[in-house]
Design goal:
The protein has 147 residues and is mainly alpha-helical. The protein is built from 6 helices and 2 strands; from the N terminus they run αααββααα.
């Protein structure tokens, strides 16, 4: 449903939220290395998140990225919107251009329900929710605090 760019953006934002520190920015190369994301590709994604004012980018020896707002004030839907846009929540499940309520494709009604559930999930979950889940050990994927 989401592009690779969007998946990487969600992962990077979670990584930044998890490693957040008021006195330290998170470096691009560290995110790319730890998350296994190509650095050049990640750089473009993070700059897009900066343009959408979800991240702040700092240059220089202490440069890197940090959240522009507290993690509990950034819903996952904002990250999706910044990278893929919200049109993914209205697209046809099998790719028809004319699929809608008046001209449904064969899976329209079922897919519409699933799509709406995903949208509600991404609207209700914040980065802080995900960080807390990781910290409680409830997540399959664990993030380690780096030194």
């Amino acid at each position: 449903m989401f592009s690779t760019s969007c998946h990487y953006g969600l992962q990077a934002m979670l990584y930044i939220a998890f490693h957040h520190s008021d006195d330290k920015n998170i470096e691009l190369k560290q995110i790319a290395k730890d998350q296994g994301i190509p650095k050049h590709f990640l750089s473009k994604i993070l700059q897009q998140l900066v343009r959408y004012e979800l991240l702040i980018s700092m240059k220089g020896p202490t440069g890197g990225f940090k959240l522009n707002r507290p993690a509990d004030d950034i819903a996952l839907i904002e990250i999706v919107d910044a990278i893929d846009g919200l049109g993914i929540f209205t697209q046809c499940g099998i790719g028809f251009k004319q699929c809608d309520d008046s001209q449904p494709c064969p899976i329209h009604n079922d897919f519409k329900g699933v799509r709406n559930q995903v949208r509600e999930l991404f609207e209700s979950k914040t980065l802080k929710d995900l960080v807390e889940d990781v910290n409680l050990g409830n997540s399959i994927i664990g993030l380690k605090k780096s030194d």
